[in-house]
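Reading a protein record of the kind used here takes little practice once its layout is understood. The fold follows as a row of integers, each naming the local backbone shape at the matching residue. With these conventions in mind, the following record can be read line by line:

_____
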Amino acid sequence: MTTKFKCMQKDFICEPSDPWVEKAARLPVPFGTLLFLATSPVGRDVFKKVVVEKSTDNALHPIYDYKKDNPKYTVWDHRWQSAAAAQSLRFRFNWIRQALIEVTKDSLERDDTISIFSLGSGSGFLYTYLLPNIDATRHKDIRIVFVDSDPRAIERAKKTANDNNLTGIAEFKSEISTDVLTNTNENSVSIFESVGISEYVEDDWLINETKLIYSRLKPNGYYIGATISSPKQKAFAHKVLKWPNMKYRTQKQVADILRIGGFNNIQQVQLGVFNGWIAQK
């Protein structure tokens, strides 16, 4: 695969974080968390969704939406949003959004109709950006399948689809991604997109999933994904934000898993503490 996608042409490097990010991470548990919650209304909203509601899919929206020049944010909000984790989550979202648009356009040039499977789709918020960037005459030629094991996420995805004119081309499956893949025909899917799963599974599981994805892709089909790769500010993410434990993988480890799964055409990009890839069958 040649480097024809603009989204793969540069790495995304975090700016220095506010010193308070590291200070909070060094405080004895739970004082860093208490400082974070006491000083940030946005932080309290994120914390509630992650820790109390166990809904990581919509917990990240306040991080995605953050803008430095927005007057609604407090000084402390700006400090916490400067964390490598927050910067990287925005890098990841903006990159995967652009990658999906570019890969969809490329697939539509090759095929009359295409199918996109979003594994671990969450609320489907990512897909609100897709159709406005695709030729309107081709919207009917796209089929999007939202897959998430959390029925609450699927209900949010249905609302997202309804609010953004996706209902006619969308399907919804409240199932484990492996079960959906097992029941999908080989050589039948144009694009798989998966974010937010690989960090929480072991290598054997991910290799099996990658093999299933490879076999279900059409020839020249694409697999877009991202996973956490750098432990930078790991203490802040886990001690202060109380984020679940994650599996950290280097670009080489990701490439090895993709190759074992069947892929040889692989491109990767650094997204702060995350690593993104486009693999082509």
